[in-house]
Structure formats: structure tokens, C-alpha cells
């Protein structure tokens, strides 16, 4: 951060990215060999979870790549930084990887990111990595970067080796490693889980565990296997962004909503938002809004209708409708669960 009078500037990307967050994002895309060095991978990378995000520069620079990040950090170290992030107009919230599940449905993100995030990923039998596993989509990536100064540090090497061992048992694979950045990928199907030797830790979660139950639910030291349909289709079944915003996602079936009902809801909200702007344009300055909260997001139709405006929406699902939040994420939007 650089203080200029009464304003604060955030040049480049701060201490997390010495060569700038924009160059770091391109470097990740090159490591993954994505077309044209674009991290969005032709629209297949849309939702990102950035843990220990600082002032959310990574998420800020992702916006121009048509990627939406949920940037989270705890209030013990990063409280003021999350405030800065929100005042910059960057999607972010206070969030803690501790004992309770994150308030996001299973299989919501294509990429999880940790750069100098100060998280002990090996604690309690790797339960925090298992939480990342829960929220990553099939084939999703985990990008982990540590400071270059730690390259030859024995403790850093021990941690790296232990993480590799745990993630291998979780059926993740190393996609690429370069300098102090490593990218792992989650499996596309249950195939690897079914081939593990009996007694391998961590175990698969029991059949009665609901991976989408998040409100006041403790993390579990187990792997959430894919539903039979997702396993058979070898992936989430989502189409690329931006088409996925208005396409009926496969998980509608989970909540008992038909594609026809979904499309009707989308049309209703397009009409409503159009009427909102007609009523407000005479009294609201252009670009006055940036951070928007939908306190009862349902299927995310309100946020979808705002796609062509320069705002982002925090979609909030009440606890009694939390199952619908997965549809919000499947549309390429973000949100959380809250008990109003």
C-alpha cells in the first residue's frame, strides 16, 4: 500500500506478488498450458477461492480476466485488509479455515489459491486440505506459492514433502511445479478413490454425510466422493463462462427445480432489474454502485441480470434455502450462507 494524502494506492500487487499480480496470473496460465496464456481457460475457470488474500490484489486482477474470486482472510490478522478490499470494490469477506466448514456448497470453485497465506495445511490430519477438496469442482486446481527465500529452508521442504504425501493419498496429482509455486489437480472421477488400498487415510466420507451442509457444521477429515452422475460424466457438466450464467445447470435436479422454472426466474429478474434502473437513473449517479448484496438470492437471478453493469453481487442464501446456493455458484456467481 502507498499512502497519497487522504487516499491509499495499491500498486502492482503488494508483497504477495513482487513482479505484479498481472504477471503472476499469466505465469499460472502458462504453467497450466492454457490457450493464449489466459487463466480463464476458454471460460472453464470462472470461480476462484483465494485464502489468506491480504488486500485481495489477486482477486482484483482476476476481474479483467473474467474470473470471479471469493477472497477470504481471518479477522485476527487481516481484518483491516478485508475492509480495504471491499472499499476497492473487490469481492471479499472475512473467512476462517478453522473448525467449521466454509459457508460455500461442495464443488463450487475451479481453482483454490494460497500465496503466503500462513495456513498450516497439515494440522489435524490435513482437515483444511480436505475442506478445499470439498469445495473444489472435479478436476479443480490448487495453486500454492511460498516465498522464494524459503526455497532451501529445511522446514519448508519438510512441509512440502508432507503435503505431497497427503495430497497423493487424496488422489490429487501434481500438474506442474516451478520455483516456489506448485499446482495440484483434484481427480475428475471416483476411480482413484476406489482403487486405494483398504485403510488408506484419509477415508471417504460416509454415505449419510451431506457435503453441501455448511451452516454451523464442523469440518470432517474425510473425502467427499462424487455423486454417481458426476462420476459417470467425468466432471461438473457445466458449460464455459459466460454461457453458464443463463444455462440451466445440472444440479437443478438436486433442489427439485426444472430447467423451465429456472429460465422463467431468469426472465423475471431481467425485467425487474430493467425496471429498477428506469426508476433510479434520475436520482443515482453513473457508477455509484459497486458492492451489492442480495439478501435472499434464491437461484441468483438478480445477480445474473446485473451482468452488464459494473457491480459485483454477494448472493446470500438464508439457512433454510442454503441448498440453492450451489446453483448460484454453478452460474459463475458467488455467495454465502447466513442466518438472518
TrEMBL record:
The keyword Manganese does not apply. Transmembrane segments: none annotated. The keyword Membrane applies. It comes from the Eukaryota. Pfam families: Methyltransf_29. InterPro entries: Put_SAM_MeTrfase, SAM-dependent_MTases_sf. It is a single-pass type II membrane protein. GO terms for molecular function: methyltransferase activity. Signal peptide: none annotated. Keywords: Glycoprotein, Golgi apparatus, Membrane, Methyltransferase, Signal-anchor, Transferase, Transmembrane, Transmembrane helix. It is found in: Golgi apparatus membrane; Membrane. Belongs to the methyltransferase superfamily. This is Methyltransferase. It comes from Rhizophora mucronata. The lineage of its organism: Eukaryota, Viridiplantae, Streptophyta, Embryophyta, Tracheophyta.
